[in-house]
Amino acid sequence: MTRTRLFASLCSLVFLLNLARVIFAPLLDVFITEFAIGEATAGLIVTLAWVGSASLRLPTGWLLTKVPRHRIVVGSGMILAASSAIAATATTVPHLMGGAFLMGIASGVYFVSANPLLSELFPSRVGRVMGIHGAASQIAAVIAAPFVALTLIVDWRLSLW
C-alpha cells in the first residue's frame, strides 16, 4: 500500500472514530423515546463515549513504547467495528452504554497512536498531514447531526453501524 493510500485510510478511520464520539448527542431524543429513559440517563450515554475516549489515553501512550504504532491503530479500528455493532444492536440501556463506552475507547486509543504514526510516515510534511488528518476528524463533528437526521428516515441504529 502506498503512503498516499495509507493516509487516505487513516483519514477515513479518524473520520469514523470521531463520528463515533459525537454521534450520540444528536440521538438523545431518540434514546429517551426508544428506551423510555430520562434525560440524565440519556446524557450518561453521551458521557460514557467521552469517558471511554479519555480513559485509555495515558495507558496507550505507555503501550506505544512497547508495541508498534500501526498495530495499535489497527486495534482501534477493530474495537470500533465491534463496539459499533454492540451499540447498533442494543436492546437495553446498559448494552447501549457499553457500546458507547467502547466506541469512545476506540477513538481515544486511535488519537494517541495515530499522531506519532503520521509523523513517522511523513517526516517532511508533518504539519500538512496533521492538519488534513485533523480536518477529517472535524468534518465528522460537523456532519453528525445532519447524518443522524438522514438515518432516522430508516432507523436510528443505522447511524451507529
Topology summary:
Elements: H1 3-22, H2 28-35, H3 39-55, H4 57-63, H5 69-88, H6 93-121, H7 126-151
Helix pairs in contact: 1-6, 1-7, 2-3, 3-6, 4-6, 5-6
Structure description:
This protein has 161 residues and is mainly alpha-helical. It is built from 7 helices and no strands. Helix 1 runs antiparallel to helix 6. The longest helix is centred in the middle third of the chain and has 29 residues, at 93-121. The mean pLDDT is 95. Keywords: Cell membrane, Membrane, Transmembrane, Transmembrane helix. The chain crosses the membrane at residues 32-51, 72-90, 96-118, 130-154. It comes from Natrinema soli.
Kindly provide the radius of gyration, computed on alpha-carbon positions and rounded to a whole number of angstroms: 16 Å
Rounded to the nearest angstrom, the distance between the terminal CA atoms is 26 Å
Number of helices: 7
Fraction of residues in β-strands: under 5%
CATH-defined topology:
Growth Hormone, Chain: A
Order of helices and strands: HHHHHHH
CATH class: Mainly Alpha
Tell me, briefly, the overall form: globular
**Could you state the CATH homologous superfamily?**
MFS general substrate transporter like domains
Average pLDDT score:
95
- Helix % is over 70%
Give the strand tally: 0
Q: Major beta sheet, specifics?
A: none
Number of domains: 1
Task: Examine the secondary-structure arrangement and name the CATH architecture.
Answer: Up-down Bundle
Q: In terms of per-residue confidence, which ranges show pLDDT below 50 for 5 or more consecutive residues?
A: none
Classification by helices and strands: mainly alpha
